[in-house]
Amino acid sequence: MAHTEQLAQLLKNLAEHFDLEELRALCFDLRLDYDELRGEQKSAKARDPITVMLRQNRRAELADRVQVLRPNVDWPNVEALLPKERLAWATATEMQSAADYLAALRDYCASLPYLSLHDIRPPKTLDEVYVPLKAKVKVVAEDKGEEERAMRERHAAGLRNTA
Description:
Helix content: 55-70%
Order of helices and strands: HHHHHHH
Number of helices: 7
Number of strands: 0
Structural class: mainly alpha
Largest sheet: none
Mean pLDDT: 77
Shape: elongated
Distance between the termini: 98 Å
């Protein structure tokens, strides 16, 4: 099995055999801050500890701990990973994390979530609340004399209308 396949299998095993609370306990055992892990879904929360442990060159510690916690699972051997393979995995997972973040941001902006005390209406999309601007260009007189003449004409027209 190629090393990248081993990492993919490790991620799959973590996601399948650990729930979120168990992933939190695993992070505690490995001295990782669970709340600092990226992502909201279990697959993302399982991916980040692998990336951190690879970056810190603590893959043996990770492998030992998951083997102790789930001895009946066929865990891949990730201890023989080369530095370039660790870098490739870390880069790929960071790109996936960025893609996940951008997708979540896109969804958030598209739904325009807003809160009110008694809001029972469904959220509106950006297309439903967009108001196009209808601004007009203000014509500016080219010189002071032209502006004064225009003001006198407006004033005279106002006097004629009141008479």
